[in-house]
Amino acid sequence: MLKITQEGPGFIVWDDFLSKENHRLVWNYIQSETLEFVHQKKWVKAFRLTDGEPLWGPPYLSDPYTPDIKSIVYPTKKGIDLFISELKNLAPHCEHIIGKQGQDWAYFFARAYIYPKGTGLSWHRDNENSAQGAFVYYAHQEWDPQWGGEFLISSYETQKLKYPESELYGGEKKYLGSHLDNTFEKETLLSSGIGTYIMPKPNRLIIITSGIIHCIKKVEEAAGNKVRASITGFFQDPAMLLKKSEN
User: What does the alpha-carbon distance between residue 159 and residue 155 come to, in Å, rounded to a whole number?
Assistant: First the structure.
């Protein structure tokens, strides 16, 4: 069992998650993967218009999931399998953070991300209707604190906040997101103005429970041609959680 580097309200951090050789092979996988800009097909609204243009790869599922007939299921015969295998082994030890597989989530998906200089991900919360938790693993081989890219986590209390719904034409009400109007989110974050930062240290894994507001600070100009390379994904089962909300 891996030794925990840091644990706080709603999150856990492990260093040296993979062996040095497997860390290198996952980094090589990201370099060989077919990546595209996150907005290449449509605006992915988790990213604001000021977040730049990160890149991502295709998602791979940890376990078969009948409603998803498009995504490739582990084992993929690619280097990402080295990461997925270790995370599958670790997940049962994180049930106080992400819940139990088969009861709270059915699978996790994992995909490669690259954040070049000038890119990040603004304050947001993960989809509370389908995600039980999220993870990020840092695959790059080196990092300098001057390069930015920190993972910022707000206070644990933000997990329980209910986001306001807006009325649409026809009377429907829904939460529209904070990509164009973040008034409620801004007031919530400023109410305490205190949280946690975690540097993107190579070979580090972070798991965070669903609902806590968090963000990725932009990679600084000082990074030059170095990139923040990660494997990221969610523990989820949209169908299972939807059924729970109906009961």
Answer: 8
Q: What angle do CA 130, 133, 139 make, to 5 degrees?
A: 120
Question: What pLDDT does residue 211 have?
Answer: 92
Whose CA is closest to 129, among 238, 8, 33? 238
Q: State both tokens at 19.
A: 């062996």
pLDDT at 240: 60
DSSP assignment of 167-216 equals E-TTS-EE---SSS--HHHHHHHHHH--EEEE---TT-EEEEETT--EEE
Is the pTM higher than 0.70? The answer reads yes
User: Which sequence spans correspond to the domains of the chain?
Assistant: 16-156+200-246
Q: What is the mean pLDDT of residues 72-83?
A: 98
Q: Which CATH number does 16-156+200-246 carry?
A: 2.60.120.620
Query: Residue 36 pLDDT > 90, yes or no?
Result: yes
For the chain, give the percent of residues with pLDDT over 70: 96
Q: What is the pLDDT of residue 163?
A: 85
- Length, in residues, of the chain: 247
Q: Nearest-5° angle of CA 83, CA 85, CA 88?
A: 110
C-alpha span between 152 and 123 (Å, rounded): 9
> Other C-beta atoms within 10 Å of 194: how many?
8
For 214, residues 6+ apart whose C-beta sits below 8 A from its C-beta are 123, 124, 125, 151, 152, 153, 154, 208
